[in-house]
Amino acid sequence: MSFYKRLKPPVAQREYRQLHVIAVEGDRTEKNYFQYLSDELDFAVAKVQVIPPESRSAPRHVLEKLYDYIKNSGRGGTTFLWMVIDKDQNKPGELDAIFKECRSHKIECCVSNPAFPFWLLLHFENGQGIPPAESDKSNSAVVDCENRIREKRYLPGFDKRITGKHWEALRPKLERAIANAKKLDDPPCKDYPRERCGSTVYRLVEKLLPAISNENPKQET
Questions:
Q1: How confident is the chain (221 residues) per 10-residue block, as mean pLDDT?
Q2: Using only C-alpha atoms, what is the Rg of the chain?
Q3: Quick check: 53 and 62 in contact, CB under 8 A?
């Protein structure tokens, strides 16, 4: 049971207007983040279902998990399908193929360059000085991003996994993260940030923001 579910009283089952199915590439960071965010939502407005990567986490396998969902569950009601993946060391041609398939199946694909921790960083700052990922090199850009999160003590003790204490620091800064990401995505990219750092995860979080319960603390700007 998650940290916030222990604090909240039981809520009766209600019909929700929107279902957001999110297939993630990371089995810890992304999974934890969206599970905590799901706990913040007013279920009468929206519900989130997170699909973890299990043993394989390449973008192709993440997309296949969504295909399995479509095959087994259908798309009844107002259902939005999302992929959350990293630029990281994935080659542009591979990501272009993923985006082409996503468009044909009405799947929204969110990409962070260099990786998802950059989206976490945007909750606190604009990420200046973090290099973008390069497909033919090591993941040093990702390491730089994670190191800054730890060294600045934005999320003390962060090591891939997001804890309840980390979420307490992230939760009031969702709107700031969206604003920082939008500034980096100007003009908005058609698919993903290719040559510069950025994260289109803001498009997903912005979609969920109106469903956050009014009982939760006011957002910091």
A1: 44 67 92 96 91 81 90 77 92 91 94 96 96 75 93 94 96 97 95 93 96 66 56
A2: 17
A3: yes
Which tokens in the block code for residue 212?
């956050």
Which candidate, 21, 30, 31, 100, places its Cα nearest to that of 60?
Answer: 100
Phi, psi of 36 (to 5 degrees): -65, -40
Per-residue tokens: 20:
């957001």
| Angle of CA points 117, 193, 49, to nearest 5° | 55
Instruction: Measure the CA–CA gap between 184 and 171, rounded to whole angstroms.
Output: 21
Distance CA 184, CA 140 (A): 21
106 contacts 112 by C-beta, under 8 angstroms: no
How many other C-beta atoms are found inside a 10 Å radius of the C-beta of residue 163? 16
Q: What is the secondary structure of the chain as a DSSP string?
A: --HHHHHSPP------SEEEEEEES-TTHHHHHHHHHHHTB-TTTEEEEEE--TT--SHHHHHHHHHHHHHHH---SSEEEEEEEE-TT--HHHHHHHHHHHHHTTEEEEEEES-HHHHHHTTTS--TTPPPP-TTS-SHHHHHHHHHHHHTTSSTT-BSB--HHHHHHHGGGHHHHHHHHHHHSSSPPSS---SS-EETHHHHHHHHGGGB-TTSPPPP-
**Residue labelled with tokens 């983040």:** 33
